[in-house]
Amino acid sequence: MTSCLRICIGCCLALLSWKALAQDANDLIKGLLIEASWLQHQQAQPLKDSGYKQLVINIQSSPTDSQLRALQRLTEHDLEVWYWIEIARDEQMAAQHPEWMASIQGHPEWRRFHPNFPKETQGEVVKVFPWVPVFFEGAFEAHFEKVNDLLEQWPSAKGVFLNDLQGAPTACGCGHTLCRWTTDYGPKTTARNLGHTAPAQFIKRVMEAHPDMECIPVWATECEAHDKDGLCAGVGCYNGACWREWSKQLAPISQATTHLAALLTYKELQRDLDVYGTRAGWIPKAIDSFASESKRFNHPAVPPERLIGILQGWNTTPEEETAQIRHLEKSGTHGFILSKMPITSEWEPRILKMDGKPQ
After folding, report:
1. What is the rounded distance in angstroms from the CA atom of residue 107 to the CA atom of residue 117?
2. Tens digits of per-residue pLDDT, 194-212?
3. At what angle do helices 282-296 and 318-331 cross, to 10 degrees?
4. Residues with Cβ < 8 Å from 311, sequence gap 6 or more?
């Protein structure tokens, strides 16, 4: 059997498996994302009465005794427990290893948000604080140790969502929060880049260490054509490298996992625009992009039934939450997680001397 035929058969079997998963409505995710510090105040019955089946807990440190007791109480009521771990946005790691942070080079449009920020000089580079992507060799290992330690310290769970496995917001220099395909868009480097397969390799490493847990990457989309005169400030990002590199990084991840999570926090990502017509109208377009933008660059499409939407449940009204859920259900995804905690994309520029010493 030729290698091409084997690949074709493998892809067909995988597609049938994903569709079979999606056809069972009882298997769909309907979860709530909370901070670990809220566990003691969380009641199981109100969650179940609202239809929630999964409780996703943001873990950043070792569990306390009271958190462990609360978690045990919740699981006794048949709530499925998942974890959420932040990867790239890590203030402690950024402070300890500023050389691992993504940089801002190339386009200078980001400076419109920081008009008084000084110009870097010879031997200096502007870094995106506190974004430390897994693309850098040292950061990759440090993030894995962080995830592994947390998962060993907390009780066993159904799975884990890993957020921000991509590059840093606005690292291309345009200033758009959703332009996060790169780490160093220029010649200045302070760490070795592992290449576009780094996120997929990271996911595989976590899965190998914790084979009994489902590992789901949380993936953001990129900018859109109409952003050129708006949030991209004149830079032609959409027809440039953004989606090409996005799809190149997504393709190996989509082969490594059954499900992926789409970051759809539309207000936080400045996607609450009139151009989408209806409230939270960007969400269907974002879901479709996992298929359409992948195919545009000759990569396998990621269909909606493989996606779990991450929705914005903070700084929102009940009507806005309902609109998001309605869009998601119509799109045919594998379900959603409504985040009651902020999932921030904030960043700020920091100057770093190329010898590694922050200024």
Report:
1. 15
2. 999 999 999 999 999 999 9
3. 40
4. 264, 265, 321, 324, 325, 328, 336, 337, 338, 339
Distance of alpha carbon 228 from alpha carbon 240, whole angstroms: 11
Phi, psi of 54 (to 5 degrees): -120, 140
- The secondary structure of 122-186 as a DSSP string is TTEEEEEETB--TTBHHHHHHHHHHHHHHHHHSPP-SEEEEE--S--TTTTSS--TT--S-S-SS
Contacts of 49 (CB under 8 A, 6+ apart): none
Question: At 287, which CATH number?
Answer: 3.20.20.70
Tokens representing 123 are 């031997």
Tokens of 141: 């290992």
| Structural domain containing residue 132 | 12-353
Split into its structural domains, the chain has a count of 1
Does residue 303 belong to any structural domain of this protein?
A: yes
Place of tokens 């440090």: 142
Phi-psi region of 161 (alpha: psi -120 to 50; beta: other; left: phi over 0): beta
Q: Which two tokens stand for residue 89?
A: 């946005």
In a domain, 4, yes or no: no
pLDDT, tens digit, for every residue of 265-293?
999 999 998 889 888 999 999 999 999 99
- Please state the separation of Cα 348 from the chain's center in Å: 19
Residue 239 forms beta bridges with which residues? none
